[in-house]
């Protein structure tokens, strides 16, 4: 069940304006989440070799499976900033931990924004007292707002489920709009759960949830330096603990939340007017199906056809053929929505163009390609490529 409530037991929130991208205080860009006690924690981060300083720090600090606080900023990625970037991430998290007399290794940094520019460390340090002071009255939505860059709206989810230890609540937030590509999709995500669980189980559950959600979306095929999803479980001293054998409801809820947030990201893709599922079936195996789906989903020609609501099936078939996966072109089936365009490798008789154009006028629909080469199947959700996307990214540093 989804709920609009922003409260979750064991966690407090605060966000302020720190003028991170520009020296003004007109928008929230610096957020903090603090658990009442160290929570069990896990993370999945970018596979980009050019990993940002906060990603490196987060990986190292979550090795012990515990986290007390998450410090997040937008407007500056603190990526490709060398030793200074590492020092800045460590300094800021140290400032936060000093306020609650905690271990700085239990504070993890998340950053998003422009690459290659040092953080305005003095402005940010000056705002940490206000961040701490705001924990008593701050709201989760304000932290979700502070994470945004080119996003047009906040992305949050709240879900509940019953467990062997009693009712469980999950609160999640994410940012992401551009530089979205699988492995993993470019975004930041923070997920909070009000029950504790074994750290190894939580790591495995998060990895599976990400694989089935954030790794199945793409806006532009570009992977970020800062992708991070962090999950904290059991931030209250009164939080019940689930035994690994009773963790299935938590794992299921985590996957559901990640799918919800991933869909919100794709629906808010930069300049996007469409969210289209590219479903490939009949492949040799799942990996082959996903490879073909991803090739189609990231084709600029396919994406512009989606934007123009043009059922240009030739672009879809051609993209599939460049994925490096063996199949017989004479056995393909292709549908846009429920309108069949190709059957056993040949165009269907009759008017398929008019009804398929009608399907493509929808905000969301599915393109299905059956390779008839096996039982493997997989899906990638993509967006259209619009003039607005070009404008946003041409002006990104302005």
Characterise the protein shown here.
This protein has 398 residues and is an alpha/beta fold. It folds into 2 domains: 11-267, L-amino peptidase D-ALA esterase/amidase (4-Layer Sandwich); 275-394, Ubiquitin-like (UB roll), CATH 3.10.20.340. It contains 11 helices and 17 strands. The chain has helices at 53-61, 82-99, 121-133, 140-146, 199-211, 248-267, 286-297, 300-307, 313-320, 353-360, 387-394, and strands at 11-16, 30-45, 66-73, 107-111, 155-163, 166-175, 188-193, 196-197, 217-218, 228-233, 241-242, 275-283, 333-336, 339-343, 346-347, 364-370, 376-383. Strands 1, 2, 3, 4, 5, 6, 7 and 10 form an 8-stranded mixed sheet that branches. A 7-stranded mixed sheet has the order 9-17-12-16-13-14-15, with helices on both faces. A hairpin with a 2-residue loop joins β13 and β14. α7 crosses α9. It is globular and about 75 Å long. 52% of the residues are buried.
């Amino acid at each position: 069940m989804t709920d609009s409530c922003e409260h979750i037991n064991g966690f407090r929130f605060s966000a302020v304006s720190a003028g991170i991208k520009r020296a003004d205080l007109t928008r929230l860009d610096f957020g903090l989440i603090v658990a009442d006690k160290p929570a069990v924690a896990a993370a999945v981060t970018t596979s980009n070799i050019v990993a940002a300083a906060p990603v490196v720090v987060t990986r190292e600090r979550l090795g012990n499976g515990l986290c007390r606080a998450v410090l997040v900023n937008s407007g500056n990625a603190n990526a490709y900033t060398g030793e200074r970037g590492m020092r800045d991430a460590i300094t800021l998290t140290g400032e936060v931990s000093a306020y609650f007399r905690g271990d700085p290794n239990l504070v993890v940094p998340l950053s998003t924004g422009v690459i290659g520019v040092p953080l305005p460390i003095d402005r940010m340090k000056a705002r940490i007292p206000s961040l701490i002071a705001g924990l008593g009255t701050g709201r989760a939505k304000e932290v979700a707002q502070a994470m945004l860059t080119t996003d047009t709206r906040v992305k949050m989810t709240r879900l509940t489920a019953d467990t062997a230890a009693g009712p469980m609540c999950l609160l999640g937030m994410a940012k992401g709009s551009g530089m979205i590509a699988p492995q993993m999709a470019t975004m930041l995500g923070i997920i909070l759960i009000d029950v504790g669980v074994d750290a190894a189980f939580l790591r495995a559950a998060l990895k599976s949830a990400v694989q089935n959600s954030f790794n199945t979306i793409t806006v532009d095929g570009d992977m970020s330096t800062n992708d991070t999803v962090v999950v904290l479980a059991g931030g209250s001293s009164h939080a019940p603990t689930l035994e690994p054998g009773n963790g299935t409801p938590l794992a299921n809820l985590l996957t559901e939340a990640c799918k919800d947030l991933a869909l919100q990201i794709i629906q808010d893709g930069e300049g996007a007017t469409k969210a289209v599922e590219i479903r490939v079936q009949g492949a040799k195996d799942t990996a082959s199906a996903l490879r073909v789906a991803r090739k189609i989903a990231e084709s600029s020609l396919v994406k512009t056809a989606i934007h123009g609501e043009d059922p240009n099936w030739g672009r879809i078939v051609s993209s599939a053929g460049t994925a490096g996966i063996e199949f017989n072109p004479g056995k393909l089936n292709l549908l846009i929505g429920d309108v069949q365009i190709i059957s056993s490798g040949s165009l269907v008789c009759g008017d398929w163009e008019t009804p398929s154009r009608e399907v493509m006028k929808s905000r969301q629909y599915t393109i299905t390609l059956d390779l008839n080469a096996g039982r493997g199947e997989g899906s990638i959700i993509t967006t259209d490529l619009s003039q607005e996307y070009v404008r946003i990214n041409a002006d990104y540093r302005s």
